[in-house]
Amino acid sequence: MAITSPTGAYFHVDELIEVARLLGLRSADELAAVEEAIAREAAVSGDLQLAFDLCIVLARKGPGYIWDLCAAIARGPALENMDVDSRKQLLGFALSYCDEESIGELLHAWKDLDMQGQCETLLMSTGRNPSKFSLQGSYFNSLPKQSIQNICFQASDAMNTNNQDVHLEKIKDELSAVAKTLAIGDQIDWALSLTENVKVLSFAASQLPWLLDFSKNGEHDIKLITGKQYLNIRTQAVVTILSWLARNEFAPRDTLIASLAKSVMEQPVTEEEDIIGCFYLLNLFDAFSGVEIIEEQLKIRKDYQQICSIMNVGMAYSLLHNSGIGTDPIQRKELLKMRFKEKHASPTSDEIGKLGKVQSSFWREWKVKLEEQKRLTDHSRALQKIIPGVETERFLSGDSIYIENEVLNLIESVKMEKKHILKDILKLADTYGLNSTEVLLQYLSAILVSDVWTNDDIAAEIADYKAKIVGNGAKTIETISSIVYPAIDGCNKLRLAYVYGLLSECYLQLESTKGSSPMAHHHDHQNSDLRFAHYYRVIEQECKNLSFLKNLNFKNIAGLHGLNFECFNDEVYACIDESSLSALSKMVQTLANIYGNSLPEGFMSWQDVYKYYILHLLSDLESKATNESSSRTPEYLQGFISKLEHSYGSCRAYIRLLSQSDALGIMKKYFTVIIPLYTSYRFIPDNSTWQDCLIVLLDFWTRLTDDMKEIALEESSGETVCFNPVCLLSCLKAFTKLVMEDILSPSQGWGSIYGYVQCGLSGKPTLEIYNFCKAMIFSGCGYGAVAEVFSVASSESGLASDSDQGSQDLPHFYLDILEAVLQDLVNGSHENGNLFYILSSLSKLEGDIKVMQCVRRVIWERMVQFSDNLQLPSSIRVYVLELMQYISGKSIKGFSAEIEANVQPWEEWNELLYAGSKSETDLEKQLPDHKDSSNRFTNTLVALKSSQLVASISPSIEIAADDLLNLDSAVSCFLKICGEVSNDFHFDALVAILEEWDGLFTTVRDRERETTAEVSEGNDWNNDDWDEGWESLEEVENPDKEKKGDSAAIHPLHVCWTEIFKKLISVSRFSDVLRLIDQSSSKPNVMLLDEDDARSLSQIALGIDCFAALKMTLLLPYKAIHLQCLVAVEDNLSQGIPATNIRDVELLILILSSGVLASITNDSTYGKIFSYICYLIGNLSHQCQLALVSGKRINSSEDAENPLLLFRMNLFPMFISEFVKADQHVLAAFLVTKFMHTNESLSLVNIAEASLVRYLERQLHLLQMNEVPVEKTRMLRNTVGSLRGKMSSLFQSTLSLLSTRVR
Question: Could you tell me the superkingdom of the organism this chain comes from (predicted)?
């Protein structure tokens, strides 16, 4: 009552259930009954949506009392949220609980819903909007039945026609396309069937057209899940049509069934799907249509498994259609199931016999055809497995060319990929008629040249066929020679060893069968007796032994026909290192033994391996010594020597394996390796660090020489030993002792060993001593050290019976060395250091004095003989004579800096020792004017130098030593030369000649004076004093004679100098005259000209320039000539001061130096000269002031020819002093005030004199404090220097003359 009484009370479901609980209805069944009542009330009231929702809930809970309501709602009109699945759920619930009478009706309704669901699923999966259609006659259509006209109009509303017959005809055509006839009876009247069954008409009009479209086009490949099968849309459409046809008892056409089978068998396809397709094909009315489908699948399928699957389907299909039970679907189905229990089982003989009795010829032939196709397919699959991508048709057709090419390509493929297919290939060869031996050898060639196959892989692959390969030895050899061997890398020695082993076996087979190989015709004369079986076995083993040498190309060692003599040596040398020495030497020895004595010339021996290795190590050390020049320290040198010792220690055992000559030759290299090292050092400091390095090296060399001595003493196999290390060992021991005792400096020691290794190690004993001692001399070692090494080495080596005999050979040794050096000098060598070293080594008296004097005499005699050789160029003779003059300690002129820096004079040497060997008469004949035989060499030297100088004047003039024998001959010769002078350049040559002669004649004169003095002093009557009184008397009576003795002497060549000055004056070169006279003043007590010479020159000069004449005479100490020239200048000044003489500083210098200023000042006769002097002083003072005002640094030494500095610092203060001494105080004071810029108001006498005193004191103070700058002037240098020496005493004497009051 609560549910039905109020209107719309059923809407409040939850409240009604709560009321039921309050009323005591609490169980599930009781509450479900309440909900059932509410649902029924809602359905009665027309609220089907609420009733649907409650029925859905109740259907899930399970109560069966409401099944009728669920069925009614499911078959009722459409509701919100009620789709096909909901309707099927309600109907399924109703079918579970309905009575028996309602089952059929509800089942039909459920099938209709299922069909509708399939259609909706297809439409929605394709994206089409499902058409709203009404299936007339269905149980869920509650609307009044529609007429046929309405259905036809709805199905073709777009065509705008109302003709019922036309539309029915179209529907009939579409239906007949998929159905043959009704399944029950023989009724074939389509019009009657359609008009009586509106439901069929509705489906055929609205759903069948688009289902047919889906089943034909196949444009959709979307798969839908149907049970356990995944079907595409086309298959699902066909299945839907078949389901509808079966439901309405229509028989489907074969085309529809075939379409379903094709859809199931579409690739990719499984075997199960093929079986399902076969089931479908069994429903065909025309069984041959199934044959076409199966054959079509055979054509389009490529995969082997799929092909086999469809073939099995065909075989089963044939069996079923010929089994005699093809008309019974149940039997056919059972047979098919049984057939496919074993997937690939072939029919038994009984079955085949049974089939043969009953099957038609078509099915028999078709079965045979399928079996043949299956056999070909299996064959093709086997081919594809062996040769992927092969064209099996051409293979199966017997195309021999194609078959051969494919087999060859297959063989080539094993080069890149390891595939064990030899058996398969040989099977193919046998199957298709190929030559199996050739195929086997081609396969062998391929795997032998492949990098992916190891030797073990190859051996395993051909193990079963090795006998066949070796049995066809000739073909195998030819194949390997032409194909395999050229393709194998020579560095792949393991593979080559395998090939050599195979060749050896083949040759052994040929030898046993007396067969010949193809290579037998290619042997050359050198290996015509070579047994190749043995040869290949040997090189196989050697190839294996050397496999660890990755870079060794064994093809350069051995070829197929024999050893590769052209490349053998180079290849072995390229791979030599410490790890390969033993293996390579054994290999060379083994391979050489194969040939015996028939090896070609130049083929290396096993000992050459060790020799090359040692030389290579030494070469590396030498390269390091050459290139690593960044750090040249003693530590680096010691490290290098340590490496050298280590190298020898590691190679010592290898050296012992060599022949004597090779061993000694290599050991010599350990000496010469220091050459580039010393070249980079060159000059080594003389300290203990470098001495230690030298001692370490010498100690190593001593031990090395001991080893050389042992090797040299060994019994040799008939070979001549070209080196005797005994002499070298003696030299090294003696030399090391001298170094350790500090007799030899490190620089001398290093230079000695460097010089020795450059030219020594020759082998002969005498030559070794010679080279070693020569190297010592050329390194600056003294005679004592050289003589020590020479004597010890000579005595210990047995070259001299005793040490004295060894010393007696020293003169010859020195002479031999000198001869070679002089010859180099003649040949134009500009390296004179060795000649210097020879002479300097004899500079000090040491060792055996007697032997040393003998050596000196021999050297001196040879140099005398050499200098007397007129065929030699004069420059060479001059050079040698200068050296002789220098070592004798006598100088005629300054020697060259080279000689003075590199040559040392001989101690206590007098050439009279050499002259003593000749008769006194001979000496007097040669030098009648000289008692000293050295003058002969001096004259010759000066004559040669003079000849070189005079060549610029006249090449025809030659000055001989006889021209310089005495002063008269020299003057005569010079005057003759002067007659050839024609230009200024010749004057310079004349001056140079006289300068050379100057030393000769002044030295002779000085020596005569010394001799005279010695004689005078020697005549003392045995030192008695009886004549003492007479000497005193003589001193008193002859004062003039003493004064004369103190006066300067006249230069012996004054006539020559006079002649030069005349020529210079004639061309107005007065500056050169002044310079030369000034230079001569540096020699004390020697006057360049006598008074007559000076007078004649002054007369000539006065006629040209009186001022120049005055300056020239002022340089000479002749008063009368001074006054004569002063008169001439006085007369000249009466005409005015020449413009060229307003700054004549030279004149001021000479006036001060000559002392004529006092005469000029006190004698009024020279008034103009005095005024001129004052003018010069004033003008120069003004110039100094201007220079100071302008900021010029006149006291700077930057200007070497600054006369203002000379004037300011020297001349001006000296003139002031001379004026004071000449009683010209006022003048001196006036000049000082002007020079000091004193104010005129202060120019009083007493103030001026005070300024004078202060000025002189200041100058004296500066001079005493050495604060007077000395200018670097070239103007009358000696005269200016003499003036500076007089400045201090002059200032002091001048200050003493000034009045005490002023001071």
Answer: Eukaryota
